[in-house]
Amino acid sequence: MDRQRAAPRLTRREIGIAGLGLAVLLAGCGKQATADAGMANMPGMAGGAADAVATPAPPAATPVAATAVTIQNFAFAPAVITVPVGTAVTWTNQDIEQHTVTARDKTFDSGVLANGKSFRFTFSKAGTYDYNCIIHPEMVGRVVVSGQ
Amino acid sequence: MAKYIERNEQQDGIDRRGFLKCMAWAGTGVMWTVGAGGLLSACTLPGVGGASKVEGFSFVQVSDSHIGFSAVGVNTDVTKTLEQVVERINALPQQPALVLHTGDLSHLAKPDQFDTVQQVMGTIKTGGVFYVGGEHDVIGDNGANFRQRFLPKTPDQSWYSMDYKGVHFIGLFNAGLEDAFGLLGKDQLDWLAKDLKSVNHDTPIVVFAHVPLYAVYQPWGWYTKDSAQALALLKPFSAVTVLNGHIHQVLSQVEGNIRFHIANSTAFPQHHPGDGSPGAYKLPADQLLRTLGYRQITVTPSQHELAIVDTTLG
Predict the structure, then answer these.
(1) pTM of this structure
(2) Chain B 33-52, CB below 8 Å of chain A: which residues?
(3) A111, A100 contact by CB (below 8 A)
(4) What is the mean pLDDT of residues B251-277?
(5) Of A35, A67, B58, B212, which one's alpha carbon is 20 to 30 angstroms from that of B300?
(6) pLDDT tens digit string along B121-161?
(7) Of the candidates B287, B246, B292, which has an alpha carbon nearest to the alpha carbon of residue B87?
(8) What is the pLDDT of residue B155?
(9) Chain A interface mutation, best of B178, B186, B189, B272, highest count of A Cβ atoms under 10 Å
(10) What residue of B is the nearest CA neighbor of A52?
(11) Distance, in angstroms, between A136 CA and closest chain B CA?
(12) What's the rounded Cα separation, in Å, for the pair B299 and B262?
């Protein structure tokens, strides 16, 4: 019976760096509204605008004109895309694990996407749509939809 | 409490229906019992709190079973690996007084997945199985089904505490979806402050929750955003042990009086912090079992530090 696995590789220095990362993350977060008010108000569930210490930051990547987004290695790629109104965008999960593509304002929600599955949504209104994976909220993306 | 054992179907001295009467799970007015199929129920006790003299016993932590997950090259039978863990637990020389499951029981919170969890966990020979939810357990309904099944007497609350043989156990929930992920929240922190007021500072405390309560790796969300407030509440206590899951690997950290221990999964491994990306990864079949397992924790009177042994299946 193997009673001990390999020692974890995270060093104290890395933990310290990770700690610095928190400060940067918090500093970089804008005050986004809590999208899912229903969950926030649910008894026993953590949440609520007053509790929101940090929300996933919008992606800082350079916008790319694209209609296909790959979900891989727990990230959306490209993270930020631009499309004209009326365009359909397709997300495809290439990770082993399931993910969702869920707009912060709930304009669209893929539900749980298994490996190899795709989700397609047509943007009929101009605007900026931030989204994330609800299971792994550190995964964030953005679709910028330009007008006619 | 004159009658301690009412039924003893497994000939192990544990009465799974009359458990309420044989063990004083009396933390902060909530007393827990194990019903048929390993289901928990609770009742409120007036005027009971704090803890008594510490007695020796052992308990087990199981985590991240992800029943419903299947991926070729990783693990296509997570029920079997959970069953293997249960077999190991049932073969321990000393039967654990209780078992804690630190979340992600299921992969997608489906009823049939919860059925399997209850069925398999219900075969563990122990005094009681206690759960906290993971983010995978609250998909779709914000945890309503999870709480109904695994916290049946407190369906409106995902956290609780209990005392056993002088140790104060606190189950916390920090694994909601989206903004609630990695967050305890004001309601829970207020409850924790109130709960701890009745506990003597010399009482050993065991906190168990899904997401790590210390900052393991923020870029992957492997931390609890408001853990500092909870840890501040725990600071006056002489010995605090925090048991977490979520990251599918053994990791430990000591911060003053608080010892953090993160456990292996029973389903699949995840990368080390910062190494590639989070999530499951493929590995040779003969290596999988080396990454899966459970944890045994032993409480010894007069010793504040709990003895922890992580055991893998391979």
Answers:
(1) 0.78
(2) none
(3) yes
(4) 96
(5) B212
(6) 999 999 999 999 999 999 999 999 999 999 987 888 999 99
(7) B292
(8) 81
(9) B178
(10) B179
(11) 7
(12) 18
Predicted pLDDT at A107: 96
- In this predicted structure, the answer to whether residue B23 has a pLDDT above a threshold of 50 is no
What are the CA-CA distances from residue A50 to residues B128, B155, B179, B183, B222 (Å)? Answer: 36, 23, 11, 12, 22
Q: Mean pLDDT throughout B6-32?
A: 34
Per DSSP, what are the bridge partners of residue B169? B162, B206
- Which H helix or E strand runs over B85? helix B78-90
Taking the C-alpha atoms of residue B261 and residue B208, their distance in angstroms, rounded to an integer, is 10
Per-residue DSSP letter, A99? B
HSE on the CB side for A91, CA within 13 Å? 35
Cα dist from A25 to A93, B78, B138, B219, whole Å: 26, 35, 26, 9
The pLDDT assigned to B290 comes to 97
Q: Which positions ≥6 away from B157 have C-beta within 8 Å?
A: A43, A44, B147, B151, B191
Q: What are phi and psi of B269, to 5 degrees?
A: -85, 160
Q: In this model, does residue A140 exceed pLDDT 70?
A: yes
Q: Write down the pLDDT at residue B52.
A: 66
Contact status of B311 with chain A (Cβ, < 8 Å): yes
- Mutation test of the interface with chain A: which of B179, B186, B218, B251, choosing the one with the most A Cβ atoms within 10 A? B179
Q: Is residue B24 over pLDDT 80?
A: no
For residue B142, give Cα distances in angstroms to A53, B78, B138, B158, B243.
Answer: 20, 24, 5, 11, 23
ipTM field: 0.78
Q: Which two tokens stand for residue B89?
A: 């637990």
B131's tokens: 């759960």
Q: How far apart are CA B246 and CA B63, in angstroms?
A: 8
pLDDT above 50: residue B9? no
- On whether any CB of chain A is under 8 Å from the CB of B115, the answer is no
